[in-house]
Amino acid sequence: MRKALSTMLEKDPEIKVVATGRNGEEGLDLIRKLQPDVVTLDIEMPRMDGLTALRHIMMEMPRPVLMVSSLTTEGAEATLKAMELGAVDFIPKQLSKVSLDIVRIEESLRSKVKEVARRKFRAPRAMRPAARTAETRAPAQVVRPSGRVVRDVVAVGVSTGGPPAVQKVLSGLPADFPAGILIAQHMPAAFTGPFAKRLDSVSKVTVKEAEDVEPFKPGTVYIAPGGKHLVLAVRGSRMEVRVVEEPANALYKPSANVLIESAAESTGRRALGVILTGMGNDGLEGIRALKARGGRALAQNDASCVVFGMPKAIVDANLADEVVDIDDMAQSIMKNLYAN
């Protein structure tokens, strides 16, 4: 695995692998000595496992860490915990040369390494030394606006660095949140079920992995299953959630564009589009369609993104009604559901 990752990375002339470590203890010693810009870290290692090593990195010498993850339920749970501890993203461990996805995995790995290396990195607040914690402000308390609800659909697109951002937003919403939420997070199929369960355990709203053809309810969050698209449809007088395969040729499955375009077509001005941290521009065309039908759009700000790619695309296209720090996103979403 170490050799495979090194070979992939060094195909890019802008990337130099300065060392490889056989276990967590050796890895920590190498990081202290060589001070690399980015670390890839396996969860399963002898002597010191990846989560323990990650805690040491974040507390002692914080820097961007990409987890190397098995595409299993156990691997998903450990990876999500790692991202809560400060890892910026993950790459799949299945890197067999017979895989049809090997080229895409290689390109994604190199892109992620270069993108996170350029960003100013801050460890999660809980992992920082107590003396520095006072410099950061606590997230604003979500306050319910007065007036009537005019938007009851929230469609969210998110990718690199997304799990902690989504968790921060959902954990800030009240149990009687007056809209339903649909989320397209770029994530493998093995990860989306554990992701939904983890979010449900820390949120007052109900969070679940979406099933094909189920009612769309306020106060419920639907996570798109990995490898499939999530769409909102209207049948008669009711809205329903559907899980579909098409378009099969979409660059991402689930796709933020497919999700947000379906919300635009189904509900128009009743929908709010939200684009959070991620590479690329998935969600741009969906937000464009939503705005054309009278909906509103929020983008996460540069300073609080792991990668300011997807939000930047809608900001640069002048489609964002508000650009919001992740600490304030729950309040902004709530505010935008009500008549101004």
From TrEMBL:
GO cellular component, one term: cytoplasm
Transmembrane domains' residue ranges: none
Modified residues (4-aspartylphosphate): D42
One Pfam family in the UniProt entry: CheB_methylest
Enzyme class: hydrolase
Domain named CheB-type methylesterase: residues: 145-340
EC numbers for this chain: 3.1.1.61, 3.5.1.44
Compartments, as annotated in UniProt: Cytoplasm
Domain notes: Contains a C-terminal catalytic domain, and an N-terminal region which modulates catalytic activity.
Name used for this protein in its record: Protein-glutamate methylesterase/protein-glutamine glutaminase
Gene behind this protein: cheB
